[in-house]
Specification:
heterodimer; A: 17 helices; 15 strands; 38% helix; B: mainly alpha; two-stranded antiparallel ribbon; 2 strands
């Protein structure tokens, strides 16, 4: 009975997988205010051209540089676990596997792209990266990566988070990142706010403005900005998760996966596990691939696919993605990573095509499942990861009802040891479930009326 | 209703990933409330009354302007920063 499946470093994948090459229907391009596609040079002030090339690439396989691999070896390949104890507790005939991305030094999947982005920036001659962070998960991952590659890293951390969340700030500092409370006096955006509101606690919006400004206005030209989710090149770097998993399953002669599950906020950890299996599905495999989101913030499961303006004045570019209407205000939910209004365009297009079957789940069921997982498998998962755990448990119970020996795989994207307050609230009975009522959704979607609708590019195969 | 009436109430913030008090939520966006304030607090306090008591219709329009998708907001911020540089 093998509980963990390992790969040697030699067995690690040597290429990332790019789903854009195999989507049976082409990606819709992001559009500018004039209705024309956004061009790569518009992103050049903040990203090096080698990453922009990946952002727009249609190549199926992209080589992972040896130097990137040599850094990933610090914690990769990550183990694939068989959840025997959970299976026993559920009494399910299903075989449940989880890919454990919580073993990275910062504790999540984020370093998979942080390391790659830092390396490509370094190759481009960049000496410093900037970014923003709230509680600090992404900031700590990028600090870690920059530390290993000898780059400077400046993180604009929202002032109130800087004051209230010391631990990830200390992680960033330990890895050599310069963590600055935002707003700061280092940027015009920061100074403008501070002159108006000296005691401002800051916001994520201000921190992003500062990080972008710091990169764009650096006179040396040796500074760029880094982003941890949503964009295509981020999804690409994360596919090492699913590619490793496929090799691990082969190693134990597990020939067919029935269900693949990942939580989806911006989409990167889900895409990382799922896209290599989506390729199998495109080639004829029968796999149910499930991105999971909070019931209270339905981006994929209830909203239509449409070009959605980014602002009231309708001046910002139009981007085709699964998105809620303008008036929607997301309700509360304890999942720090699941907070993007829009989903990754690649994930969105795969949903349109029918390759993915998104589901939504309530937070109390998530915490119930996370606690059951902790008490059987032993790992306390991150709040956003609990969505994947809950869906895997649902699927295992369904397999039991159907008497089927399904193979269920999910991504354990991060541990929750820095985010225990949500568990505390759950145990105290302070959490509530909230689902957007149909009439509220209908009202929200009125704002999409009159906007251009992208052609429904799909083959109808799935 | 005093604007400070609920300042000590705490909630988990999805944007930042940790707990915060209401006094942050009501001034998160340049002294205006966070765009998520209504949904986050609807089940805890009379948030609609609070907002209508302390903010004008223009303010409310600003507060509930739509969130901007990541790539579009990046381009917008790049253009602003380039203008500064020039």
């Amino acid at each position: 009975m093998q509980t963990k499946v390992f790969l040697t470093e030699d067995e690690m994948p040597r290429q990332w997988y790019n789903l854009a090459a195999d989507l049976p229907s082409p990606m819709q391009p992001p559009l500018g205010p004039d209705g024309n596609p956004v061009s790569p040079d518009m992103l050049a002030p903040v990203f090096p051209m080698n990453l922009i090339e990946q952002e727009v690439s249609q190549e199926r396989w992209i080589d992972i540089p040896e130097e990137v691999l040599s850094i990933l070896y610090r914690w990769r390949p990550t183990p694939l676990h068989r959840a025997y104890a959970l299976e026993k507790a559920l009494g399910t005939p299903a075989r449940i596997y989880y890919k454990n991305e919580s073993v990275s030094p910062p504790g999540s999947h984020k370093p998979n792209t942080a390391v790659a982005q830092a390396w490509y920036n370094k190759q481009f001659g960049i000496k410093k990266l900037t970014t923003e962070t709230g509680a600090g998960q992404w900031g700590s991952a990028l600090s870690f990566a920059c530390s290993l590659l000898g780059l400077e890293c400046k993180i604009f951390m929202v002032r109130i988070s800087f004051d209230q969340k010391p631990f990830r700030k200390i992680m960033m500092q330990t890895w050599g990142g310069k963590c600055i409370p935002s707003p700061s006096n280092e940027t015009q955006a920061g100074r403008d706010i501070l002159s108006k509101i000296p005691d401002t606690p800051g916001s994520l919006g201000i921190a992003i403005s500062e990080a972008i400004e710091a990169a764009v206005t650096d006179q040396s030209g040796e500074t760029r900005y880094s982003l941890g989710s949503v964009l295509n090149h981020v999804m690409l770097h994360q596919t090492i998760i699913g590619l490793e998993t496929k090799k691990q399953l082969e190693k134990i002669n597990e020939k067919k996966v029935d269900v693949v599950v990942g939580c989806a906020g911006g989409g990167s950890n889900f895409a990382g596990l799922a896209f290599p299996f989506a390729l199998d599905k495109i080639n004829g495999a029968d796999i149910d691939i499930i991105p999971v989101e909070p019931s209270s913030c339905p981006t994929m499961t209830r909203a239509p696919f449409a070009y959605d303006h980014g602002d009231v004045a309708k001046m910002t570019p139009l981007l085709p993605m699964y998105s809620l209407g303008h008036e929607f205000i997301p309700p509360p939910i304890h999942a720090g990573g699941l907070r993007y209004h829009g989903m990754s365009p690649l994930v969105s297009q795969a949903i349109v095509e029918g390759l993915l079957n998104p589901q939504a789940i309530h937070q109390i069921e998530c915490y119930e499942s996370a606690v059951q997982f902790a008490r059987t498998e032993g790992i306390i998962v991150a709040p956003e990861t609990s969505h994947a755990v809950a869906t895997a448990i649902r699927e295992a119970k369904k397999a039991k009802e159907e008497g089927k020996q399904k193979v269920i795989l999910f991504n354990l994207s991060g541990h929750g040891l820095m985010d225990l307050t949500g568990y505390d609230k759950y145990f105290a009975g302070e959490l509530t479930d909230y689902a957007l009522p149909e009439d509220a959704m209908a009202e929200s979607l009125k704002s999409l009326d009159g906007l251009p609708k992208p052609p429904a590019n799909k083959t109808g195969k799935w | 209703m005093n604007i400070n009436a609920y300042d000590a109430e705490a909630i988990y913030c999805r944007k930042l990933g940790h707990h915060l008090k209401f006094d942050y939520c009501r001034r998160e966006s340049d002294e205006l409330p966070c765009s998520r304030i209504a949904k986050c607090w609807a089940e805890r306090i009379p948030i609609d009354d609070f907002l209508r008591s302390h903010f004008s219709d223009d303010d409310l329009d600003k507060i509930f302007a739509p969130p901007v998708p990541k790539i579009t907001s990046l381009i917008e911020l790049i253009q602003k920063a380039q203008a500064l540089k020039e």
